[in-house]
Amino acid sequence: MQKKGGFWKIFFIVMIILILITSIAACIFLFKKIDNSQFYNDQINSGELTNPVTNITDEKAIEKFDESFVYYLLYSLKAYNLHNPPLSSDKPKIEIRVDSDPFNAIIESGKIIVKKGSIENKDVLIKTTKSEAVKMLREGSKVFESFSSESSTIEMVAGKATLFGKGYLQMYEEITGKKLI
Fold first, then answer.
1. How large is the C-alpha radius of gyration of the chain?
2. pLDDT at position 47, please?
3. pLDDT exceeds 80 at position 133
């Protein structure tokens, strides 16, 4: 004779095990540090990716400022490590306002895609001037200085859960020296 509650006990144990395995997998995925720097290191070594302020004056760089400058600035901010939140197709979206010129970037599988113009549903808004951007591009240590002195700013537009899920919190802490949460 079989006990009436035996099926439910086994079902309950199996469900707890499945929830535990799913939770562990989600934690590993969420807290796994993403580092797409090898792709960009390869591009630098091959000469495909070059700093646009190399071999030109600051005045010429300000005059020529375009998407390539924004691309290299986002590269130096390690924006390539941003990612979609788990189980989502919601790509990281950044708007960068350089003086009065808006640029936008979408990070797709570690690739930074920059275009001129504003973007809808941005996660983050970065504001700077062309002269500050050129300083940051010329000398990487100026990035922290520019954001900590508030010559450049980063405004978190999306909610903290979205920012956490996409990896913005680490980037924010690295460029400002402050924790968001």
1. 22
2. 76
3. yes
Whether 167 has a pLDDT exceeding 80, the answer reads yes
Q: Residue 33: what pLDDT?
A: 59
Q: Which of 68, 169, 69, 87 is nearest to 124 (CA)?
A: 169
Distance CA 39, CA 150 (A): 31
**57: buried, middle or exposed (CB in 10 Å: 19+, 13-18, 0-12)?**
exposed
End-to-end Cα spacing for the chain: 57
Amino acid at 121: N
Q: Which pair of structure tokens corresponds to residue 137?
A: 């591009």
DSSP category for residue 114: E
Is residue 37's pLDDT more than 90? no
The dihedral sign for the CA sequence 62, 64, 67, 72: negative
**Of residues 149, 151, 132, 120, the one with CA closest to residue 73:** 132
Structure tokens at 141: 């240590």
- pTM, 2 dp: 0.78
Show the CA angle centred on residue 23, arms to residues 20 and 25, nearest 5°.
110
Q: What distance lies between CA 13 and its chain's CA centroid? A: 40
Asked whether the beta carbons of 95 and 122 are under 8 A apart, the reply is yes
Residue pair 147/73 in contact by the 8 Å Cβ criterion? no
